Amino acid sequence: MSTIFSKIIAKEIPADIVYEDELCLAFKDINPTAPMHILLIPKKELLNLSDAEENDQALLGHMMIKTKEIAHSQGFEDYRVVTNNGAGAQQSVFHLHFHIIGGRSLNWPPG
Ligand code: 5GP
After folding, report:
1. Which CATH class is domain 4-102?
2. Residue 56 Cα, ligand 1 centroid: separation in angstroms?
């Protein structure tokens, strides 16, 4: 089932887009938890990381490589990439997304 992120991909609802190519889209989180809080999503509708399969390897690799470019474009060298996989892990939007977070000191482990 499509989510609000599909509407953002289709430009049916606005988002502050910071990067886009044929495979993925990155935009600012509407409720940022840090000075930089970007969501990087595939244009392909995958529910979450568990929904990805062998034939998604190139897509996922592409997105991981792009995190650096996206963070650098926002002025940050250090950043965290995290995905919440499933409701029990606090996933609230069921379209795969990687949070790219930075711009403040980050604690570890996350809660
Ligand atoms: P999750 O909890 O699923 O890991 O993360 C979903 C993220 O999507 C949250 O950080 C939330 O603030 C963000 N979000 C939800 N709806 C929208 C929206 O319509 N636009 C944007 N830019 N971010 C959204």
Report:
1. alpha beta
2. 23
